[in-house]
């Protein structure tokens, strides 16, 4: 029987076998509509805008990190992250830096281009009129999400000492590093031909995560996250996500929603 294991579900959640779509045409449409409405109510920030472009995602206990390819200005990249409820990525700690490193390590080397290296916008910028600060860890830069606090830095070189123009930071990824991806920060122009970032990294924060669903029989699960990603491979699934269960190649059947529990924690429950 292709049903989610009960240990992953809210107590009382139904786990009946999935019927063929032909046997329940009206119920399928109704369930999908209700589930999508519930997802909209459950999101931290509302319905995501635009289609997902990320090629890979990684979720930790309270955040998801995504990578997006394409040349954009820093401001455009930040707006794309923000429109789906996030910001350009912060790496305020060694732990966050390791999450980003793990995300990049999952990518094929060819993603970094013919030379095995790429530049990706992160959430550090310094506005025009704000000067380089040698004594500060962020050198006068601030996070797109707000603030200048950090316990971690990865400057490849000292940022340019200027106050006359806006400066933005990209993460330099060397996929040819022998063990782990070589990563470091470098500042530069935020837009125009000299802004050479080939993509950007987003971070989406959540109250918590559900475990990925385990099925009691042959089938698959596709997760739709609040930030617009469809994935079958997430190890942790953020609060507010939908899970669509498919059995034996059928179209997705029952929809479950990752919800917060009254006693604490997060679990999968049926859409109302």
TrEMBL record:
<dbReference type="InterPro" id="IPR016186">
    <property type="entry name" value="C-type_lectin-like/link_sf"/>
</dbReference>
<dbReference type="InterPro" id="IPR016187">
    <property type="entry name" value="CTDL_fold"/>
</dbReference>
<dbReference type="InterPro" id="IPR051505">
    <property type="entry name" value="C-type_lectin_domain"/>
</dbReference>
<feature type="domain" description="C-type lectin">
    <location>
        <begin position="60"/>
        <end position="191"/>
    </location>
</feature>
<keyword id="KW-0732">Signal</keyword>
<keyword id="KW-0430">Lectin</keyword>
<keyword id="KW-0472">Membrane</keyword>
<dbReference type="Pfam" id="PF00059">
    <property type="entry name" value="Lectin_C"/>
</dbReference>
<dbReference type="InterPro" id="IPR001304">
    <property type="entry name" value="C-type_lectin-like"/>
</dbReference>
<keyword id="KW-1133">Transmembrane helix</keyword>
<keyword id="KW-0325">Glycoprotein</keyword>
<keyword id="KW-0812">Transmembrane</keyword>
<dbReference type="InterPro" id="IPR057350">
    <property type="entry name" value="THBD"/>
</dbReference>
<dbReference type="GO" id="GO:0016020">
    <property type="term" value="C:membrane"/>
</dbReference>
<protein>
    <submittedName>
        <fullName>CD93 molecule</fullName>
    </submittedName>
</protein>
<dbReference type="Pfam" id="PF25444">
    <property type="entry name" value="THBD"/>
</dbReference>
<dbReference type="GO" id="GO:0030246">
    <property type="term" value="F:carbohydrate binding"/>
</dbReference>
């Amino acid at each position: 029987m292709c049903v989610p294991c009960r240990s992953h579900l809210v107590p009382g959640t139904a786990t009946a076998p999935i019927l063929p779509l032909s046997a329940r045409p009206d119920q399928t449409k109704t369930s999908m509509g209700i589930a999508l409405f519930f997802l909209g109510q459950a999101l931290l920030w509302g319905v995501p805008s635009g289609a997902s472009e990320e090629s890979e995602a990684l979720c930790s206990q309270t955040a998801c990190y995504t990578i997006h390819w394409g040349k954009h200005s820093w401001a455009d990249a930040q707006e794309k992250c923000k429109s789906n409820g996030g910001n350009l990525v912060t790496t305020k700690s060694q732990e966050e830096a390791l999450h980003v490193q793990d995300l990049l390590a999952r990518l094929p080397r060819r993603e970094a281009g013919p030379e095995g290296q790429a530049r990706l916008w992160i959430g550090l910028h310094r506005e025009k009129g704000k000067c380089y600060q040698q004594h500060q860890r962020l050198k006068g830069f601030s996070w797109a999400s707000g603030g200048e606090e950090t316990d971690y830095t990865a400057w490849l070189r000292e940022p340019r000492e200027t106050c006359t123009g806006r400066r933005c930071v990209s993460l330099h990824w060397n996929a040819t590093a022998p063990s782990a991806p070589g990563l470091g920060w470098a500042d530069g122009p935020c837009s125009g031909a000299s802004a050479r970032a080939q993509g950007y990294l987003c971070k989406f924060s959540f109250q918590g995560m559900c475990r990925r669903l385990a099925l009691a029989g042959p089938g698959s699960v596709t997760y739709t996250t609040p930030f617009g990603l469809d994935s079958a491979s997430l190890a942790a699934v953020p609060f507010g996500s939908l899970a669509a269960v498919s059995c034996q190649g059928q179209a997705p059947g029952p929809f479950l929603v990752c919800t917060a529990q009254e006693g604490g924690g997060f679990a999968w429950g049926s859409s109302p």
